[in-house]
Design brief:
The chain is an alpha/beta fold. Helix content is 46%, strand content 12%. The chain has three domains: 256 residues, 2-enoyl-CoA Hydratase, Chain A, domain 1; 189 residues, NAD(P)-binding Rossmann-like Domain (Rossmann fold); 146 residues, N-(1-d-carboxylethyl)-l-norvaline Dehydrogenase, domain 2, CATH 1.10.1040.50. The site of nicotinamide-adenine-dinucleotide has 23 residues, from helix 12 and helix 15.
Amino acid sequence: MSAVHIDVLDGIAVVTVDNPPVNALGHAVRSGIADAVAQTDKDASVQAVVLIAAGRTFMAGADISEFGKPMADPGLPDVVLQIEAAQKPWVAAIHGTALGGGLEVALGCHYRIVDARAKLGVPEVHLGLIPGAGGTVRLPRVVPVAKAAEMVATGRPIGAAEALQVGLADRKSDGDLRADAIAFATEIAGKPLPEALVKRAPVDAPDDAAWHEIAGSLVSKARGQNSVIRAVDAVGEAVRLDGVAALAVERQVFTDLMADPQSAALRHIFFAERSVSKINSLKGVVPRKLDHVGVIGGGTMGAGIAVALLLSGLQVTMIERDEDALATGQGRVADTLMASVKRGLISPDKREVLLQGFIGSTNYDALEDVDLVIEAVFEDMGVKKQVFAALESATRADAILATNTSYLDVNEIAASVSDPSRVLGLHFFSPAHVMKLLEIVRPDQVADDVLATGFVLGKMLGKIAVPAGVCDGFIGNRILSAYRRECDYMVEDGATPQEVDTAMKAYGFPMGIFAMQDMAGLDIGWAARKRRAPTRDPKERYVAIADRLCELGRFGQKTGDGWYHYPEGARRGEPDPLVSEIIADEAAKNGIKQRDFSAEEIMDRILGAMVSEGQAILDEGIAASAAAIDVVMINGYGFPRWRGGPMFAAQAGQKNG
Ligand code: T1G
Ligand code: NAD
């Protein structure tokens, strides 16, 4: 079956692109469309053309797997120019996600009709690029410049209604897109062609002051990512220059960025996030039924997990210790769903429907027909074993029993039930209904179909599910402990907490590790250190600064003091002389002559700790690949995406300053 085929009926040629899974604009598709332009121009019986895609979506962009290799003609910019110069009107019929090159092809067409659920966007910045087939030039000539700049710089797609409203779409189809597109084509057939976008003036071009404002705001969110900055500049040039000249400028910037290490890193992580959940050993394994899920504990995690499950369409039963705790947990769920309504993510009616699928009980008998249960009770092995014992007698023998523990030994939890093959770890990250990362922890005796069901659940929740072996902290928390330890060493040796945090932010982290601990709560790490104390290697250097802060009740933002002081509940802390005194006292007690640290040395030490712990995790088989470690650190711990992750950054020889 060719990637592009043409059917002509009653003077309308329907050109269909069929290149699963997402109709990426690989060479076969590009040449197929170019041929279709020539063929329909030549065919006197054709009055108008509809360009549509088979399968689940209109073209979702250039074929990213072709990047970094010589691009075979015709290149996408030329294909778009050919459509734009066609003698017959082309109507793009868009469903699914018209992204990147896909939207650029649609912009080459003379008209656009969109399915009501379609999304349209230019996400190239997320790959370290900018649109390279005219997107930065044609978009501001069909929608207002400010909207075009926002779409190009943020990569955020817009929906059908907004596309219609801003002028990106001419029509919206609420029914049969193909039929509506053919009708639209028939309507415009024989009429004069509209002026090519590339020849038009920009729409609502802002004056210099207004553009300075728009550009400044978009660039301020770049956080070190070159593509965002270059994307804003490209739109600015596209507005300043005539369309044809602007195309040449765009192409040059696109070519420069394709060679930028940031783009290589972003392309690495794009594919890594999709390959990491593919487990060869589970190929052909049939997962178990997943309709009804139990959640034990309605606390921070239990409530967040319940919301994630409800949003994916699953029925949820929450169990809590007593009526008060249950009411609190149910309230958390209802409030979180209300916040989703306020953000326009779901409608009020949808929220009502979801809450109908959500029941709570203090009686484990309510779990009699669940397919899977996730416990999110206190991080205490005794409590978890009690819960698992109760689950074992309250649930069907084929129900899967999952733990959301952060650090505890999942093999030990599995061994506490008579059939350990039904136990696995599902390590969510807080807030569980927002964070995309899910570590799927596989105990030694877990059944294949139980593990496979875990990955099915991850896909249903829209998570990036990363397989992890059993160890203290699995992948992410284990690496966090390693570089947190390194930062404690540096603080005792003379770096200040704010110097470390400043260096991490300059590297691209959203916040430094000390501010992050103050936000999450120092008590969590304190509990973990106390739990590990009996087995800690006495020869290993131990820094007691954090313990001393905890002994003073300084748990961070929630107590107003931690590594920093938070005046009147402020979100941003300020250095606290008491902390400096404690640090100096600990250094003196340990005979340490404190010294200065540069930002580069701080980051070298942090990345070194991450990479050596990551290598140990690989050597022990806890993570299946270095890419899996990168996916975890980017999606769970704020590692800057445009650096590709600690393992990628190290092998790419990136400078850490
Ligand atoms: N090229 C190649 N493969 C792609 C692809 C692409 N553009 N998009 C997706 N895939 C593969 C993906 O690797 C996976 O493969 C399968 O399709 C399903 O993807 C010139 C230069 C479209 C919203 O950035 O955002 O155009 O694992 O698991 O969750 O200016 O894929 O099954 O083997 O993500 O339903 C711009 C990227 C490119 C869009 C679908 N376009 N893709 O999400 O499925 S640059 C993008 C997505 C460009 C021009 C520039 C998503 C999706 P496998 P999936 P999904
Ligand atoms: P939490 O204290 O907020 O909630 C725990 C809940 O469990 C409480 O509501 C408590 O009433 C309930 N509970 C205790 N014993 C119970 C029992 N026998 N039956 C039913 N309910 C019971 O704790 P949390 O932060 O939600 O953490 C829960 C688990 O998730 C812990 O294992 C934690 O390590 C893990 N975790 C936490 C985070 C995080 O960032 N907070 C992230 C990942 C994993």
